[in-house]
Design a protein that fits this description.
The protein has 690 residues and is mostly helical. It contains 32 helices and six strands. 48% of the residues are buried. Residues 239-309 form the Winged helix-turn-helix domain.
Length: 690
């Protein structure tokens, strides 16, 4: 990967000290080999140099690459196709506990992706063909002393480790074996202790711990000693919080800590002060992002706390409290999805996904908790469907429903959500099985709400498979059920939009527009934006069909911008298809073909292109026919290939006309005697194919 090419590695907030030789060696290794593994003990600096549940490894890699895939394709297939023709450096950090899942995946991706290079960082090799090892030693004493000085100054601005204490600093780094994590933990202590005082305390801790584990290599002893010594210097309440924080996955916020970690020996009112002390000692770090102020622990530090929690026999209780907090968070977010805070909810759930996964895993592995796993997987429907995570949602829903639960309502909810996900993935058989089971179970249990959702989603399936009369009948019935029980949320409004689509496809544009304008008003009243995007899609389609091209483009552009904001690939690609048609109608068949190429690249990550539907596919067919007629087959295919080379962000920017247009894909917008592409507004009728 070229140095100037952007990546998604986190920006470091402090100086990178030392490692000049290792960086040069690493650069050379990556130039001659495609798989380089940096190995070394925990805390030695592998992540700084290189910068889950085994079943989720492939999803995690796809997530890191920014891939969104709605289909039922295995994530490995998605990764293969994405990487096949790209030049990319993939960094895999901390894989050692998942080596059996990581090694075959990386080997497979390297075999099928000639432009891929992998930089792995872990405590052991991957032991796969073509691997080049780069063992990483601790820092030399001079570099370690520079690191300690730099971090001490950051922790305490007035702290100056001058020549008078240089010998103590060097000796301290030597006793810590130059392990960067140990050095940084020591620096955090210089707020209260001098280097000489640190040395005296470290001596005691060395004797205590190294005598206990003679089978552990010296550098591992030094790291454990450093962490253990830092732990020893903590107050009892700080140690208690440290151990309890180990139940969190990834980042966490203060409110979660106050709920999960408070209890015997640690009142909730004291959490903030105790957490502040752990921050000051570099046990916990702080970061700010779109979801606000959050905290995290390095994996080595977290694992040390987890050992203490295990020794205290408190793991299950803390994991249950952790699950309860994130169950409550998911419930609140589901309700708040239908509100002006919808975008905030999307951001929050994205940030909390590692913890939500941990909560789901607990529910699905702890005896007697399966019904809560079904409830949690179902409550996150808005994230699976609305934020581009259909494939992962399907993973959790399938697992949850594969277990027996003793709470019918939770299972019924998971069933209709699974049916919804499967419909959008184009998996008709699975969708019908889940929705029919939900409908039958709802009738048996007398659950009016589950019956309404099951009928709604069966109607949605009829819509995308072109059974328009049945779709209209089922959707009207479901909407009547919702009204009867007083249900109003994004799902209900989406049912109204889907009914409008059915009406538009059979030519009743007036009533379709009436339904979507009603949805639009309700969305504006409640601050809802996700469903609004689909209502705007139908309104834009109707405006273009009525011969209002400027209004149609305005509506579809707003729809596309909203879909892209929520990472909703289905809404994004549907809007791109219509905007391609509008572009052809405006006299630019080359640009229309580019947009069709961009859409064609997205569809494999969504499902069956245009659902295989004559109704949804009508605009595409007309656009392609007219663009081919205007450009000729060779020029049309050239433009389609150019569009297929666009990334998602670039394609959206281009469709919205907010980004640069590649002039090589254009031709003059009009030629005498051709009338542009020969396409007139209003020429397409609902359901028409070319």
């Amino acid at each position: 990967m070229r140095p100037s090419q952007p990546g998604n590695l986190p920006l470091e907030l402090n100086a990178f000290i030392g490692r000049t030789g290792e960086l040069a060696e690493l650069t050379a290794a990556l130039e001659t080999g495609r798989l380089v593994t940096v190995t070394g003990t925990g805390g030695v600096g592998k992540t700084r140099l290189a910068l889950r549940d085994a079943d989720l490894v492939e999803y995690a890699v796809a997530e890191a690459l920014g891939l969104t895939d709605h289909t039922t394709r295995p994530p490995r297939q998605v990764l293969r196709e994405h990487l096949a023709e790209r030049e990319l450096l993939l960094v895999v950090d901390g894989f050692e506990h998942l080596v059996d899942a990581c090694a075959p995946l990386l080997r497979d991706l390297l075999v099928h992706s000639p432009g891929l290079r992998v930089l792995a960082a872990g405590r052991r090799p991957l032991e796969t063909g073509g691997e080049r090892l780069l063992p990483l030693a601790p820092l030399p004493e001079a570099d370690a002393a520079d690191l300690l000085t730099d971090r001490a100054a950051a922790a305490l601005p007035r702290c100056a480790l001058d020549d008078g204490c240089r010998e103590d600093v060097v000796e301290l780094c030597r006793r810590l074996d130059g392990i960067p994590l140990a050095v940084e933990l020591a620096a955090g202590r210089l707020r209260t202790l001098s280097p000489a005082q640190l040395l005296s305390r470290l001596d005691d801790r060395f004797r205590l711990l190294t005598g206990a584990r003679r089978d552990v290599p010296p550098r591992h002893q030094a790291l454990r000693t450093a962490i253990g010594w830092s732990h020893e210097l903590c107050t009892p309440r700080e140690r208690l919080l440290w151990s309890r924080l180990s139940v969190f996955a990834g980042q966490f916020d203060l409110e979660a800590v106050e709920y999960v970690c408070a209890g015997e020996g640690l009142p909730a009112d004291d959490i903030l002060d105790v957490l502040g002390e752990l921050l000051a000692q570099s046990v916990v770090s702080r970061a700010e992002g779109p979801a606000g102020v959050r905290y995290r622990m390095l994996e080595t530090v977290r694992a040390y706390g987890a050992d203490w929690l295990e020794a205290a026999g408190d793991v299950t209780r803390l994991r249950r409290r952790h699950r309860d907090w994130y169950m409550g968070l998911a419930t609140w977010c589901e309700l708040d999805w239908f509100s002006p805070r919808q975008a905030e909810v999307a951001t929050l759930v994205e940030a909390e996904l590692p913890n939500l996964r941990a909560a789901l895993e607990f529910c699905l592995t702890e005896p007697g908790e399966a019904h809560l796993g079904q409830y949690l997987a179902g409550s996150l429907w808005f994230h699976w469907v609305g934020c581009g995570r259909l494939a992962e949602g399907r993973h959790w829903l399938d697992r949850a429903l594969g277990l027996d639960g003793d709470h019918g309502d939770a299972r019924l909810k998971a069933l209709w959500v699974l049916g919804y996900v499967a419909v959008l993935q184009g998996d008709t058989v699975a969708a019908l099985a889940a929705l029919h089971e939900c409908r039958d179970g709802a009738e048996e249990a007398g659950s009016a709400i589950a019956a309404a959702y099951a009928e709604h989603r069966i109607g949605c399936l009829a819509l995308v498979t072109d059974d328009i009369p049945r779709a209209e009948k089922l959707l009207r019935s479901a909407l009547a059920r919702y009204q009867e029980i007083g249900e109003l949320n994004s799902n209900v409004l989406m049912g109204q939009v889907e009914l409008a689509m059915a009406l538009a496809f059979r030519g009743d544009l007036a009533h379709a527009v009436e339904l979507c304008e009603d949805v639009r008003r309700i969305c504006e009243d409640h601050g809802e934006r996700w469903t609004l995007a689909y209502a705007l899609y139908v309104l834009g389609y109707a405006a273009w069909t009525r011969g209002e091209p400027e209004r149609a483009r305005e509506l579809l552009s707003e729809s596309l911008a909203l879909d892209h904001c929520f990472h909703d690939l289905l809404g994004t690609v549907l809007s791109l298809e219509l905007l391609a048609l509008f572009t052809a109608a405006e006299g630019d068949p080359a640009e229309a073909a580019v947009l069709q190429g961009a859409a064609a690249r997205i569809w494999p990550s969504v499902g069956l292109p245009l659902f295989g539907s004559a109704n949804f596919g009508g605009p595409h067919a007309v656009c392609e026919e007219r663009a081919r007629e205007a450009l000729g087959d060779e020029r049309y295919e050239e433009c389609v290939r150019a569009g297929a080379g666009l990334g998602l962000d670039a394609a959206v920017s281009r469709a919205l006309r907010t980004g640069p247009v590649n002039e090589r894909t254009r031709r003059p917008p009009r030629q005498e005697g051709r009338g542009g592409d020969g396409l007139k507004q209003g020429e397409l009728r609902p359901g028409q194919r070319a």
